[in-house]
Write a structure and sequence with these properties.
49% of the residues lie in helices and 9% in strands. It has one domain: Fe(II) trafficking protein YggX (YggX-like, Orthogonal Bundle). α2 runs antiparallel to α3. It has three helices and two strands, in the order ββααα. It is mainly alpha-helical. Could be a mediator in iron transactions between iron acquisition and iron-requiring processes, such as synthesis and/or repair of Fe-S clusters in biosynthetic enzymes. Necessary to maintain high levels of aconitase under oxidative stress. InterPro entries: Fe_traffick_prot_YggX, Fe_traffick_prot_YggX_sf. One of its GO terms (biological process) is cellular response to oxidative stress.
Length: 90
């Protein structure tokens, strides 16, 4: 059975995640309010951020920066600024 959520990022009913992918309170909030589609969008942005800033996920400051960007993207409708990145034109 497909689990539906009202996605905070897409502002629509959409298929929810199968399980909590992120730890803690924020992870629960993502599980309850973010769709698979929006999570997929975030993962693409996250990869670009990690690569551009050469983030080390063992570094707590780097993880915090990524988490701040994740919350901004998923819950505040913000986009992630990637220097020099130009999205492909439709």
């Amino acid at each position: 059975m497909t689990r539906m959520v009202h996605c905070a990022r897409l502002n629509k009913e959409a298929e929810g995640l199968d399980f909590q992918l992120y730890p803690g309170e924020l992870g629960k909030r993502i599980f309850d309010n973010i769709s698979k589609e929006a999570w997929g969008q975030w993962q693409a942005k996250q990869t670009m951020l990690i690569n551009e800033h050469k983030l080390n996920m063992m570094d707590p400051e780097h993880r915090k920066m990524l988490e701040t960007n994740m919350e901004h993207f998923l819950f505040e409708g913000g986009d992630v600024e990637i220097e020099g990145y130009v999205p492909p034109s439709e």
